[in-house]
């Protein structure tokens, strides 16, 4: 089975590629802007006819689209998250219409929800900002296509390799700079989020890519538990042995202010994919910290 992973060099894409590479009978293909990609393409700008020709030559049985932008200006966010999936769907429909498409969406598509109410796939989508709106546009391009496609609506991924564009990766980097006992200043940590291990997300993507028969159009992928964002700071402190202070300044992102609580209902993914999250938040944060320590260690250094 030939499976193409787009965005294979990113946080979600690297872990997804690793999961798929381990499956028997899978030939993994990589796509994106990285040198040496089997499909060298930027979905935000790729012309559909050229993209279709390249896809026809690769002839994948399944495509997992992990390409996405969580930061940048409006053009970057809209191009990667909205225009990209639309161009991909159009090209796939022209080149390999029988392909299985797995597209990674975002919980930001939901927007605000009442505290204590888990989000199901049938809940209203009312994104609070441009990122969520662009991701929702990408989801609509996928779900309105005639392709055999599923959107995995990913909540807050965390784990080894988490980038500094998100709180866990950024806070880990700041703790490392302040280690062992200086002060780290952060914004408001009172919002509640559903943090899910990136390796569990990757496993869901692999299951969706290889599952027989049609799947629901949208599946939530989260831990099923809302945790205070403060738990990320506490978990990284516990994992690192940091002895300094974490000082909340009271400020925070506009999205945290607008969306104070989110939790996924993952029963549909459990039914469709026999998937459930396996790693608790403490393990994800410990592995995030250790992965950074391994990167910082000199070659050949022992644990």
TrEMBL record:
Domain of life: Bacteria
Record-annotated NAD-dependent epimerase/dehydratase domain positions: 3-222
Protein name (database record): NAD(P)-dependent oxidoreductase
Organism expressing this protein natively: Actinacidiphila oryziradicis
């Amino acid at each position: 089975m030939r499976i193409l992973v787009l965005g294979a060099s990113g946080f979600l894409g690297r872990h997804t590629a690793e999961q798929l590479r381990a499956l028997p009978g899978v030939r993994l293909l990589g796509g994106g802007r990285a040198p040496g990609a089997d499909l060298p393409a930027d979905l935000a700008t790729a012309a559909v006819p050229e993209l279709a020709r390249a896809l026809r030559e690769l002839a994948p049985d399944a495509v997992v689209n992990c390409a996405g932008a969580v930061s940048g200006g409006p053009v970057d966010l809209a191009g990667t998250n909205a225009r990209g999936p639309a161009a991909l769907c159009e090209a796939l429909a022209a080149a390999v219409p029988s392909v299985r498409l797995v597209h990674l969406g975002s919980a930001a598509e939901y927007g605000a929800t009442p505290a204590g109410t888990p989000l199901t796939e049938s809940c209203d989508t009312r994104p609070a900002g441009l990122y969520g709106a662009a991701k929702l546009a990408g989801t609509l391009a996928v779900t309105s296509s005639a392709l055999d496609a599923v959107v995995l609506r990913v909540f807050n991924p965390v784990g080894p390799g988490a980038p500094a564009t998100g709180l866990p990766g950024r806070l880990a980097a700041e703790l490392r700079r302040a280690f062992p006992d200086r002060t780290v200043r952060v914004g408001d940590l009172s919002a509640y989020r559903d943090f899910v291990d990136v390796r569990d997300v990757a496993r869901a993507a692999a299951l969706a890519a290889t599952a027989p028969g049609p799947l629901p159009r949208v599946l939530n992928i989260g831990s099923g538990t809302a945790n205070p964002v403060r738990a990320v700071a506490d978990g990284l402190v516990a994992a690192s042995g940091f002895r300094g202070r974490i000082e909340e300044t009271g400020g925070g992102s506009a999205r945290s202010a607008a969306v104070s609580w989110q939790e996924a209902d993952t029963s549909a993914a459990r039914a469709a994919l026999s998937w459930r999250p396996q790693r608790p938040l403490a393990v994800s944060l410990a592995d995030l910290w250790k992965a950074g320590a391994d990167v910082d260690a000199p070659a050949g250094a022992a644990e």
